[in-house]
UniProtKB/TrEMBL annotation:
MF terms (GO), sorted A to Z: peptidyl-prolyl cis-trans isomerase activity
Catalytic activity annotation: [protein]-peptidylproline (omega=180) = [protein]-peptidylproline (omega=0)
Keywords from the named record: Isomerase, Rotamase
The WW domain, residue ranges: 8-42
Originating species: Pleomassaria siparia CBS 279.74
Coiled coil: none
Superkingdom to which the source organism belongs: Eukaryota
UniProt-listed InterPro entries: PPIase_dom_sf, PPIase_Pin1, PPIase_PpiC, WW_dom, WW_dom_sf
GO cellular component, one term: cytosol
Gene Ontology BP term (one): positive regulation of transcription initiation by RNA polymerase II
CDD domains tied to this protein: WW
Name this protein carries in UniProt: Peptidyl-prolyl cis-trans isomerase
Length: 180
């Protein structure tokens, strides 16, 4: 028998809270005091996506508006596949899509962004397999040596506002947009 779902799509007893230290949403079970960054088993991913887009997207949340010498700021949209180093995300507890299926999916997102239908942060909020989805894919500032080499190599060649092509790393497939 399935557990009743709340408007968040989380199983009964679970709620979305916001971290005071990271200013990010996380999942909390009041009765057990269990907290986690990834959604618990039994979550309805579509319902959670809609809830997070309405209540925890980057709209209206201002990121740090200061430059850090030697560092850049990027947002990304990540599509994981079953060969990713950690094939799970806030959207899916077990990712089973093939590399080829992930490629087709991210190509669709790339097309929607290039066509002006959606921005990368808008799509990242609901479609990215990275927990940075909560912030529209914003990874904050980072420098050389902070990210996976393939990701960094692509990110550091971008000008502010520019988006990369599809970048493959051990984490999955990315679209990267340089913010600053």
């Amino acid at each position: 028998m399935s557990q009743p779902q709340l408007p968040t799509g989380l199983p009964e007893g679970w709620e979305v809270r916001r971290s005071n230290t990271k200013n990010l949403p996380y999942y909390f079970h009041a009765a057990t005091k269990d907290s986690r960054w990834e959604p618990p088993a039994g979550t309805d991913p579509e319902q959670l996506k809609a809830y997070m887009a309405d209540n925890h997207s980057s709209k209206g949340i201002s990121a740090a508006n200061f430059k850090v010498p030697g560092k850049i700021r990027c947002a990304h949209l990540l599509v994981k596949h079953r060969e990713s180093r950690r094939p799970a995300s806030w959207r899916e507890s077990k990712i089973t899509r093939s590399v080829q299926e992930a490629q087709v999916e991210i190509e669709g997102y790339e097309r929607r962004i290039k066509d002006g239908e959606k921005t990368l942060p808008e799509l990242a909020t609901t479609e990215s397999d990275c927990s940075s989805a909560r912030k529209g894919g914003d990874l904050g500032f980072f420098g050389q040596g902070d990210m996976q080499k393939e990701f960094e190599d692509a990110a550091f060649t971008l000008e502010p506002g520019q988006m990369s092509g599809i970048v493959s790393t051990a984490s999955g497939l990315h679209l990267i947009q340089r913010l600053e």
